[in-house]
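During the reporting period the student researcher (J.K.) took over the structure-prediction task from the postdoctoral fellow and processed the backlog of single-chain submissions. One of the processed entries is reproduced below for the supervisory committee.
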Amino acid sequence: MAERVCAWLLGAIASPWLRLARPRPPPRPRPRPRPRLLPGPAGDTGGAAAPAASAASSPLRAPPLLSAAAGPEPPVSASKEPTCGDGRPGAVERRSGAVPGPGPSADGRVSPARKAQQGLKERYRLGSLLGRGGFGSVLAATRLSDGAPVAIKRVPRNRIHHWGRLPDGTRAPLEIVLLHKVSAGFPGIVQLHEWLELPNNVVMVLERPERSQDLLHFIRARGFLCEEVARHLFRQVLEAVRHCTSCGVLHRDIKPENILLDLATGQAKLIDFGCGTYLQAAAYTSFAGTPSYRPPEWIQFGWYYGKAATVWSLGIVLHQMVCGEHPFRRGWNSTWGRLSLPRRLSPECQDLIRRCLSVLSSERPSLEDLSCDPWMQDIHVP
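J.K. obtained the following structure tokens:
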């Protein structure tokens, strides 16, 4: 049965008749007033390093993932499990001061906030709800200037507790600052097109592939992924994570719901940096993310190191890919060290999952070691 599922998935990936995503022309200049556009990477003074993973390690074009047999994809939905926490280490600022309300100003003119909101509606046609959670909501939308699909994320201002500064000095929510550091020109991170402040919300306009699905729904629609498909996707996720850490950014909420797949090109994109923070060498003493992805050291000792906790999350994601379920969803504390894996998995795949999910963080592989692992290289050790 596993062989038939694997063959079906590979056949879906190789379908030659699938239409690849066409490149979109750049948007035409927007009328004033307009929301803030992110400054280009040339103005970045944050000292971001070059990507750790070489572009040569990825294929020039990923294979398409959509199959007619799979049917229409379900909408991307936020996890029912609460995410994030309080207290993110790093130099952040709290926003203070009042924001102009939506009504007319004292001299009878429309306020800047109202103009910005009207400008947003004039440039985008809103569509269906993609997800809702503690962070706010995400709507599908279409850019009217060129028909490009986008996602509009709306976050209540009273839920944004951490702010930073963009390279041009603009104060912005930390999520936007982190996205600016990692997303420019890197295909494995969702691109932020623009953002603006409204009286009660911060709005982000994000890239949205025309045919897309989050990894959780992609797995659920198929039960589990064969190792070839899982390797192809996991390699991209690892490359995106290494790129983030090389830029000094820690995502802290890596899970299938936060990995978006472009079904036409096969590109995996890391999304939702709402729990993210700056990478630091010292241990973190506050948790942000999804509770079921917390590493054992946090539960036992109340601290964790960023990269080791990331490898733990990646191990859970890989298990979900090839097994179709979270390894510790049921009584996960009691199953540490007694992980049961299907016999159909190759010894190399089993070994990689077990090492990523080592109870001792010092026994987990580094992000660099993961890239060189035999299973990642499709090498079978006798």
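The committee noted the following: Confidence is low (pLDDT under 50) at residues 10-35, 37-64, 66-79, 86-111.
J.K. will present the remaining backlog at the next meeting.
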